[in-house]
Design brief:
Radius of gyration: 16 Å
Distance between the termini: 34 Å
Number of domains: 1
Order of helices and strands: HHHHH
Oligomer: single chain
Number of helices: 5
Number of strands: 0
Helix content: 55-70%
Structural class: mainly alpha
Strand content: under 5%
Shape: elongated
């Protein structure tokens, strides 16, 4: 039977691949395009209305977009990794609730839910040794 244990020595490289990959998805597909479009912030911020917050949607949207942009850069660099992973986990949790709430099924919320779970995992693992933070 094939032994996979030889890959154990590449643990930190695996964390680097995850950090950079997830960070680039957040930054290039979601964070930066929305950051340079302030008109989208209020619409994004409306997600918190499902949590009972009925005002300040522009500010909440800016916070979400900032966490997806700045948080992504922090993940990629491995700097302030855990606060960034926490902010992204919370942002994706709110997005999952928002995507699910008006629909009958979970299919619309599966992407933010999956990204939130990955960010939660990164919160617990830390950045690894290939980062600005090191171990």
């Amino acid at each position: 039977m094939f032994r996979w244990s030889f890959l154990d020595r590449f643990h930190d490289f695996g964390l680097l691949v995850m950090r950079v990959g997830i960070g680039l998805v957040f930054l290039l597909l979601y964070g930066f395009p929305k950051l340079i479009n302030p008109g989208s912030w209020a619409g994004i911020g409306r997600a918190v209305s499902y949590l009972g917050i009925k005002s300040g949607h522009q500010v909440w949207g800016f916070g979400a977009v900032l966490s997806m942009s700045l948080g992504a850069v922090c993940l990629i660099l491995g700097f302030a990794h855990r606060p960034a992973a926490l902010a992204l986990t919370i942002t994706m949790g709110v997005a999952a609730i928002w995507k699910h709430y008006p629909f009958a099924g979970w299919s619309a919320s599966s992407y933010p839910l999956a990204m939130g779970v990955v960010c939660l995992g990164l919160l617990f693992t830390g950045p690894g040794k290939y980062s600005l933070q090191g171990r």
